[in-house]
């Protein structure tokens, strides 16, 4: 022993032993049990620590490689399991303080060298030391070492974040650990001054830099995920906690007060502290602690944080002045403060401005939210010290306008919110730089700008100083223009805000503003407008303001005071005589062609016509709504009718303006695609409205006006260039004019349509179709701006309910769509006039006659000839349709399709999508038939080229069938039978689709194929149903279709061939689907036939036999061609199910037990058994394939209804086992289970009805195994879900005899297992929706079904333990709804079905129900922004459920009266804690009123006496409302009740 000891020790100490050997020896000594040293572990740790310390203290010279190996050895020892086990056993092992100093020095070297190579081992050592309590004492006992380590680690992290290298987790993990250790020590320190010194001296600067870099870092996928998502946020929070506890401790408050408020402290006595905390922090922020480029941004981001932490610690009502002084000192750290002291503005770049203004905004936000600035207190007590500071801020912001930065607007808004007087002295500058002259176009800047202007509107509106604000607006407008083209004064959203204010203002104030604008315009602008572009722009701005005010102010009515009416009349007279008339005279002067393009002339024209339109519209409205109002142009009424036909009748609106003058003005306005031209259209529209209001409308004038409006935009619409328009009339330009024009046409179609020619209707239909093609692209490019584009307008019309009412346009649009389809065809096909689409798009067919005929007035003398012509035109359209139909059938039979390329197929798909916008079920007979023919022609007479995408082709075919189904749902769907034989349609469709199927042999597993089959099936089913419902040639059509289907062969060769050479699986599936659909529809028809028609029933039954035989052949071929491991095609399953149903119906007639002859032959039995086995194999793997699952379960339902069909020794247990395996599959979610629940129940009903008692016992054991606790402990949650689901499904099945006894005998075990499962599942939030909600549903079903069976109250009471375990807070909206509803249903089941148990377990019931009440109160409390509407709807439904329960308790449970006072007390106690949303409160109050009905006078006295003071007040309010509203109403109802 001694030899071993002395040998190791001497060799480690010996200078002769090489360092390589020493390290090997030390490593061996640590891990070997043979090497025994007294206190071996401590000796080895001391040795390696001593060597490293000696090396770094220059007492020892070592090679770098040896040093690295020594660090690695130390790291291995610290992290070794041996050391951890020794420490756990209580052995004392420590490190020297010097090793901590060495680690810190090593980190310091790395920071100074700015390279982080070879530092990983040292970091790992420090991590191990800090995470081991007995070792971390070397840092925690000497706080200076820990502070130094934290500082160095922060610097390392900053270097990594500032570099372009990827961020790894090591430094940040250790940093987070070090922060946690320091915060623990910091809380234990008793000397706040010492902590403050530590933080400011060593930690403040690196922590602020670290926080900034973590915030602004642009994280990439290469960066460590844990750092990016978790550590960065956690470290930022730790920095804030450290600064809060280090800089702003309660004990330091007096020091801050002495420094910030020295005058107050001097009055009280001598200053006590020499600590200057604010000055210290300012100094640290001002000194250079990072790169100069970063310094400003770091300080800006830190200032608001420090101020927030200061307010969190010290902000109370009595300290508001102190908080303000802290604000002013921290603002001094920003570079913005230098601008107040004359520093040049160009010292700050745009990025710097943005950062500084953002910091200022955050500071002002904190001031506003903390209510630091009290205007009265500041003025009376503090000599307006705060006001002066904010005033200087406002001046600085005004003198250095930054309209491109959103934060600049937000700062001004905050200053205005603090006190409008802060900015009022600079109101003109504010209006100019932030509104009128601001060139703001980006949405992110526009939003804060509009928020600022809205604040100005609201402020001056509340102060009743709106005229003062708009006096400044007018002043700014009249200043020399800052730019040639100013933006419009009011955007669309600003107009909305203006309207809100104008509705609240007194009318005289609005008239003051209008008079001011009119007078200024008359005096200053009108005389100087000729030849001056600047004056013309000012005129347009003034005109747009007048328009905005007159259009958005409250209208005059009979209640308006006479003085206001007279002032309004006078104002409109001034506008007409003082502005409009001079402008019209100016504009009508003859000019040379080159002068007409002058900017001033264009803007003057825009202003004039905008004012004319505004004047006319407002004058008309006032005349209609106010009987006291007399129009300044009183002769207008007679003038409109006399001159309506001439020049559009616009001259009649302003009788003072000569007609010749109007002609010249209109000619000038029409030469510009701008506001003036748009206003001319509006005036024409106004004229049409006024003519329509006359007793005798002038038809010619209406037609002329409508034609004028359409003609005004025809040229600009044909250019195809347009931009979105925000609805501002004064902002119509060359590019927004087409949008504005189209908006006017579409939104007034109901007025225009009756008076435009058919050619114009066709023009509108063509433009509509062209613009819809653009709508997709524009839809993808939508933003939050309230602007409209041509595409959006057209799309809006297509989606509206008005289009189907406009029959002519509907018909014209369909014609235009058909023309477009014909254009898509290849050029060779386009030249062929015999093709169906070409015939349908012929231009000489009067398709519209069906609509126009009933509307035409016919002269009685000419009636016969007119009627004949009309009938001829109508018959021409139907003859054309009949000819097209015959041609289509012939082409389909001869197999001469038009070949479409992929691009043509895509174009057709786009057109089909547009066709889907039409309300296809509301088409007129001829239009319905045309549409049907187009779709049928696309299906039957076209074929995709070989190179086409198969998925695209499937989508195209599916869309055609979907649209055909929409047509079949229409009221005129039967009109197609005027031109077609039903069987011809079916044959044409099936022939073309069987031919097309040769393309799809490799695409049978894609979802699009399944969707295609579904669409074809739905079409066939609906069409066959139409044949039957029509009751004309039903038997003949069905017979023809049956014989056609039987003759079809599903091979690659085509639709009809003698032998099945090459099996085509796609054609086979399609054919099977057709057989199945036909059998299904015909069987239903036969079942509904009356007894008189049994003969035809027998005929059709006989016809079905070959169909069934052909189905069998197809299924057998399909199964033979299906490879061994390939899943069953979904189309086969309904077919085999139909076959089995048919066979079973025949065996029932022939006696199943006696003979197996007839339809159910032995080969057929084997087919069904093979199919059954295949389905059982595939069922567990089906996952979320709903179509397969539903079909497979439907087959099993039929198969399991005959137990003798089971192959071999298989029983019902095998089917249940497969279902259980299906439910445990990873892809089966609760949503999938809900979708197949009905089918699952039907299967189980058959299984349990036909199984033996022993089999039922086995099934119950399967269920109970799934509910065992080991499943949830082993994370087999799907096992639990499957067992819970099966339990719920078993409860839906009718059980009797021994099976019923067996189930209810196991029910206590089931409910106990469910309670334990709930307790476990509630610990994991992710299991709430997957396990807890299904358990609640199952328990509710169990309690309902167990009425009168569950006799042991304890078993029912177990349900309460489940309800009290389930969480109701911190849930997603959908989970919350499900859990709340589940808990409510369980409670309701107990209340309804187990009232005796309820009375014994009343406390548990009340606790469970009270949890619901508290939860809905918490979720339904009032919030600033209600947020998601769907979320609020859920809360409202939950509140309604609570009301329902209260009502039920009051109505049904007389024995519960004793608890009524307790329920009310619980309710008001919770109500006192929250302010409920009115809608939620309404439900809860209605419910609690019913409980108050149960309270007797003694209960009310008891509540008044026992409730705490605040709660008592709430109860009194509730009880008063109850007496006033509910009780009085109830007594009134009782009075009239028999």
Read across the widest sheet, the strand sequence of neighbours is 1-2
Main sheet attributes: strand count, strand direction, barrel closure: 2 strands, parallel
Outline, from the CA principal axes? Answer: globular
Number of DSSP strands?
Answer: 2
Chain-wise SSE layout:
Layout: H1 2-13, H2 19-31, H3 40-56, H4 64-79, H5 81-88, H6 97-113, H7 120-131, H8 133-140, H9 143-162, H10 170-188, H11 192-216, H12 225-247, H13 253-260, H14 262-268, H15 277-286, H16 292-314, H17 320-331, H18 336-340, H19 350-369, H20 375-381, H21 385-399, H22 406-418, H23 427-436, H24 443-462, H25 466-478, H26 492-504, H27 507-525, H28 533-552, H29 562-587, H30 599-625, H31 636-642, H32 659-670, H33 675-692, H34 699-719, H35 737-747, H36 749-752, H37 758-780, H38 790-799, H39 807-824, H40 827-831, H41 836-840, H42 849-852, H43 863-894, E1 898-900, H44 902-917, H45 925-940, E2 942-944, H46 950-968, H47 982-996, H48 1007-1030, H49 1034-1047, H50 1065-1088, H51 1094-1121, H52 1132-1150, H53 1162-1178, H54 1186-1200, H55 1212-1223, H56 1230-1250, H57 1253-1266, H58 1269-1273, H59 1277-1291, H60 1297-1321, H61 1327-1345, H62 1353-1365, H63 1373-1393, H64 1395-1400, H65 1402-1419, H66 1429-1452, H67 1460-1471, H68 1478-1494, H69 1497-1506, H70 1509-1535
Helix pairs in contact: 2-4, 3-4, 4-7, 6-7, 6-9, 7-8, 7-10, 9-10, 9-11, 10-12, 11-12, 11-15, 11-16, 12-16, 13-14, 16-17, 16-19, 19-22, 22-24, 23-25, 24-25, 24-26, 25-27, 27-28, 27-29, 28-30, 29-30, 30-33, 33-34, 33-35, 34-35, 35-38, 37-38, 37-39, 39-44, 43-45, 43-47, 44-46, 45-46, 46-48, ...
């Amino acid at each position: 022993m001694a030899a071993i000891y002395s040998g190791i020790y001497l060799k480690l100490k010996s200078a002769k032993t090489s360092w390589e050997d020493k390290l090997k020896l030390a490593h061996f000594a640590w891990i070997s049990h043979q090497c025994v040293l007294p206190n071996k572990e401590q000796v080895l740790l001391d040795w390696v620590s001593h060597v490293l310390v000696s090396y770094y203290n220059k007492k020892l010279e070592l090679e770098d490689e040896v040093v690295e190996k020594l660090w690695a050895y130390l790291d291995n020892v610290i992290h070794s399991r041996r050391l951890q086990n020794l420490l756990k056993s209580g052995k004392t092992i420590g490190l020297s303080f010097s090793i901590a100093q060495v680690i810190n020095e090593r980190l310091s070297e790395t920071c100074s060298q700015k390279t982080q190579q070879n530092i990983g081992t040292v970091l790992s050592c420090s991590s191990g030391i800090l995470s081991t309590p007995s070792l971390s004492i070397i840092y925690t006992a000497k706080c200076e070492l820990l502070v130094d380590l934290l500082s160095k680690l922060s610097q390392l992290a900053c270097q990594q974040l500032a570099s372009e290298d990827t961020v790894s987790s090591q430094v940040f993990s250790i940093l987070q650990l070090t922060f946690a250790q320091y915060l623990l020590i910091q809380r234990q320190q008793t000397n706040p001054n010492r902590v403050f010194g530590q933080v400011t001296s060593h930690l403040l600067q690196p922590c602020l830099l670290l926080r900034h870099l973590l915030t602004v870092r642009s994280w990439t996928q290469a960066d460590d995920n844990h750092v990016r998502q978790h550590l960065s946020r956690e470290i930022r929070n730790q920095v804030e906690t450290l600064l809060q506890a280090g800089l702003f401790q309660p004990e330091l408050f007096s020091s801050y007060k002495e420094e910030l408020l020295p005058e107050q402290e001097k009055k009280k006595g001598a200053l006590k502290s020499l600590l200057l905390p604010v000055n210290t922090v300012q100094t640290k922020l001002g000194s250079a602690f990072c790169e100069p480029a970063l310094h400003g941004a770091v300080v800006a981001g830190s200032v608001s944080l420090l101020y927030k932490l200061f307010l969190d610690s010290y902000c109370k009502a009595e300290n508001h002045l102190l908080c303000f002084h802290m604000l002013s000192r921290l603002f001094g750290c920003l570079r913005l403060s230098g601008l107040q002291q004359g520093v040049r503005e160009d010292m700050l770049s745009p990025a710097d401005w943005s950062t500084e203004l953002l910091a200022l905004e955050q500071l002002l936000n904190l001031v506003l939210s903390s209510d630091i600035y009290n205007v009265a207190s500041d003025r009376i007590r503090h000599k307006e010290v705060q006001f002066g500071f904010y005033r200087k801020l406002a001046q600085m912001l005004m003198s250095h306008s930054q309209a491109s930065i959103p934060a600049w607007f937000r700062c001004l808004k905050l200053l205005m919110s603090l006190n409008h007087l802060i900015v009022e002295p600079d109101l003109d500058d504010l209006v100019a730089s932030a509104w009128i002259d601001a060139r703001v176009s980006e949405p992110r800047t526009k939003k804060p700008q509009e928020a600022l202007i809205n604040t100005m509107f609201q402020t001056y509106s509340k102060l009743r100083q709106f005229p003062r604000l708009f006096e400044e607006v007018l002043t700014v407008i009249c200043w020399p223009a800052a730019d040639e083209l100013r933006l419009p004064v009011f955007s669309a959203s600003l107009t909305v805000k203006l309207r809100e204010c104008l509705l609240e203002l007194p009318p005289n104030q609005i008239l003051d503003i209008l008079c001011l604008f009119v007078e200024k315009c008359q005096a200053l602008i009108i005389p100087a407008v000729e030849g001056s572009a600047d004056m013309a722009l000012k005129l347009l701005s003034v005109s747009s303001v007048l328009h905005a005010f007159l259009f958005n102010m409250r209208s005059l009515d009979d209640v308006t005071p006479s003085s206001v009416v007279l002032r309004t009349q006078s104002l409109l007279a001034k506008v007409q005589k003082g502005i409009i008339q001079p402008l019209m005279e100016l504009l009508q002067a003859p000019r040379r062609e080159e002068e007409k393009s002058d900017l001033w002339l264009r803007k003057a024209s825009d202003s004039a016509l905008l004012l004319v339109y505004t004047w006319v519209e407002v004058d008309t409205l006032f005349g209609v709504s106010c009987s006291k109002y007399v129009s300044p142009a009183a002769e207008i009424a007679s003038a409109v009718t006399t001159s309506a036909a001439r020049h559009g009748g616009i001259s009649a609106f302003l009788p003072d303006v000569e007609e010749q003058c109007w002609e010249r003005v209109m000619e000038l306005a029409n030469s510009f695609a701008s506001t003036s031209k748009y206003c001319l259209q509006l005036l024409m529209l106004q004229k049409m409205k006024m003519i329509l209001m006359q007793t005798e409308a002038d038809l010619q004038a209406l037609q002329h006006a409508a034609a004028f409006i359409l003609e005004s935009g025809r040229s600009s619409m044909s250019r195809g260039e347009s931009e979105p328009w925000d609805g501002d009339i004064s902002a119509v330009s060359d590019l927004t004019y087409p949008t504005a024009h189209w908006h006017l046409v579409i939104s007034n179609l109901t007025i225009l349509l009756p008076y435009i020619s058919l050619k114009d209707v066709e023009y509108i239909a063509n433009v509509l179709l062209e613009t819809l093609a653009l709508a997709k692209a524009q839809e993808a490019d939508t933003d939050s701006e309230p602007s409209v584009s041509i595409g959006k307008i057209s799309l809006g019309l297509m989606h509206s309910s008005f289009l189907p009412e406009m029959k002519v346009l509907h018909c014209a649009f369909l014609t235009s769509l058909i023309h477009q389809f014909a254009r898509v065809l290849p050029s060779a096909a386009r030249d062929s006039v015999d093709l169906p689409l070409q015939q349908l798009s012929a231009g000489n067919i009067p398709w519209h006659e069906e609509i126009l005929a009933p509307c035409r007035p016919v002269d009685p003398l000419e009636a016969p000839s007119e009627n004949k012509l009309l009938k001829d035109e109508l018959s021409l359209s139907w003859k054309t349709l009949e000819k097209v139909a015959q041609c289509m059938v012939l082409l389909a039979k001869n197999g001469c399709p038009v070949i479409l390329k992929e691009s043509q197929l895509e174009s057709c798909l786009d057109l089909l999508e547009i066709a889907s916008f039409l309300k296809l079920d509301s088409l007129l007979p001829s239009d319905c038939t045309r549409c049907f023919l187009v779709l049928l022609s696309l299906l039957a007479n076209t074929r995709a080229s070989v190179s086409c995408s198969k998925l695209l082709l499937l989508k195209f075919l599916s869309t055609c069938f979907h649209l055909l189904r929409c047509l079949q749902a229409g009221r005129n769907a039967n009109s197609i039978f005027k031109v077609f034989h039903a069987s011809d349609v079916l044959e044409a469709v099936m022939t073309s689709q069987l031919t097309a199927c040769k393309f799809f042999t490799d695409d049978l597993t894609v979802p699009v194929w399944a969707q295609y089959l579904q669409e074809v099936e739905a079409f066939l089913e609906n069409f066959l149903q139409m044949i039957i419902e029509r009751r004309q040639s039903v038997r003949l059509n069905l017979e023809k279709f049956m014989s056609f289907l039987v003759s079809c062969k599903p091979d690659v060769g085509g639709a009809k061939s003698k032998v099945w050479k090459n099996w085509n699986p796609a054609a086979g599936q399609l054919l099977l689907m057709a057989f199945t659909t036909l059998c299904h529809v015909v069987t239903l028809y036969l079942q509904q036939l009356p007894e008189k028609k049994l003969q035809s029933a027998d005929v059709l039954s006989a016809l079905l036999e070959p169909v069934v035989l052909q189905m069998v052949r197809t299924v057998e071929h399909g199964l033979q061609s299906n490879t061994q491991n390939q899943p069953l095609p979904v189309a086969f399953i309904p077919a085999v199910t139909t076959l089995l149903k048919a066979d079973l119906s025949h065996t029932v007639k022939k006696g199943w037990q006696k003979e197996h002859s007839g339809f159910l032959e032995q080969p057929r039995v084997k087919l069904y058994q093979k199919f059954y086995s295949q389905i059982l194999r595939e069922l567990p793997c089906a996952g979320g394939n709903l179509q397969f699952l539903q079909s497979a379960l439907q087959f099993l339902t039929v198969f399991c209804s005959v137990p003798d069909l089971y192959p071999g020794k298989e029983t019902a247990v095998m089917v249940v086992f497969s279902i259980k395996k299906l439910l445990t599959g990873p892809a089966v979610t609760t949503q999938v289970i809900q979708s197949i629940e009905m089918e699952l129940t039907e299967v189980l009903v058959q299984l349990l009805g036909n199984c033996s008692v022993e089999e039922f016992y086995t099934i119950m054991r399967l269920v109970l195994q799934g509910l065992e606790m080991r499943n949830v402990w082993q994370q087999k949650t799907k096992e639990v879900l499957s067992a819970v689901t099966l339990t719920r499904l078993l409860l839906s099945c009718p059980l009797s005899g021994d099976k019923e006894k067996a189930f209810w005998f196991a029910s206590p075990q089931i409910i106990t297992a469910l309670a334990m499962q709930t307790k476990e599942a509630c610990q994991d939030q992710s299991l709430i929706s997957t396990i807890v909600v299904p358990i609640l549903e199952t328990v509710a079903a169990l309690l309902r079904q167990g009425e009168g069976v569950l006799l042991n109250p304890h078993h029912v009471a177990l349900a309460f333990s489940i309800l009290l375990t389930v969480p109701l807070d911190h849930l997603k909206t959908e989970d919350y709804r499900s859990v709340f509803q589940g808990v409510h249903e369980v409670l309701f089941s107990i209340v309804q079905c187990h009232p005796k148990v309820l009375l014994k377990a009343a406390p548990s019931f009340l606790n469970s129900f009270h949890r619901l009440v508290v939860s809905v109160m918490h979720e339904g409390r009032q919030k600033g922004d209600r947020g998601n509407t769907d979320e609020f709807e859920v809360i409202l439904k939950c509140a309604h459920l609570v009301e329902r329960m209260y009502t039920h308790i009051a109505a049904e449970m007389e024995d519960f009266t004793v608890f009524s006072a307790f329920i009310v007390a619980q309710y008001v106690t919770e109500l006192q804690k929250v302010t409920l949303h009115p809608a939620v409160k309404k439900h809860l109050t209605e419910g609690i009123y019913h409980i108050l009905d149960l309270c007797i006078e003694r209960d009310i006295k008891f509540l008044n006496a026992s409730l705490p003071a605040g709660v008592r007040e709430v109860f009194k309010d509730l009880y008063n409302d109850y007496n006033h509203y509910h009780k009085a109403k109830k007594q009134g109802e009782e009075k009239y009740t028999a």
